[in-house]
Specification:
- This protein has 8 helices and 11 strands.
- It is α/β, with parallel strands linked by helices.
- The protein has 2 domains: 190 residues, Vaccinia Virus protein VP39 (Rossmann fold); 58 residues, S-adenosyl-L-methionine-dependent methyltransferases (N-terminal domain of TfIIb, Single Sheet).
Length: 259
Amino acid sequence: MPSYESFSEVYDKFMEDVPYDKWLDMLEKIWSKYNLKPNLILDLACGTGNMTIRLAQKGYDMIGVDLSEDMLLKAKEKAETKSLKNILFLNQDMREFELYGTVDSIICLCDSINYILEPDELFNVFKLVSNYLNPGGLFIFDINTIYKFENILGSSSFCETTENSAYIWENYYDREEMINEFYVNFFIEKENGLYERFEEYHYEKGYSAEAVSLLLKKAGLNLMGIYDELSFKKPNDKSERIYFVAMEKTKKHQNEALN
């Protein structure tokens, strides 16, 4: 799992095009569709808190969990700037996170699930989600699709510059292992006007919708729906990002399973 130690300095600049506000709107539409009015929400792999903070500003009580201390530091600074008191940030690995109690909903966005490279570890994440969700609570997450890795990212390079930083992002997708390697070089201007170069390697695993669905079921979660990005439409063979909605079983569901 990457730590984003260096990238935390420029993460938000390079994520400016991410449709966080549209994701927020979609989350609330999903909660409404499934008649859930969450109060306490866990944002897994929250990064610098872009979704956590938006949800907190809407009045939700938030917990943000991330592996990177540097990313969490940025998140805390932003929350303090906005005088938000309804966020608890925890420096934890999503593969073995621990909470003080249960929550009403758990979200994990921006293809963070793809960073779990082993199916057994992904199953463990789902088991933990099931453990910490209230009955009837929703787990909402997205993944980059295998189509995206094979046809959009794989063997492609991207670059971008801002006023005082730049990056070069190269990809290699191993079709046999279904793992995409991201190699990122980025350059950050320092106070003396010189640029410092950093490099990081990141890895994402391609999962089919069928494989993810089986792991959710095995973990004891009810799969409610799989949707194309920012819609309630069914994914197609060229979908690049898809959303999963799973529910922690209620007593009714548990009784039905026993009968």
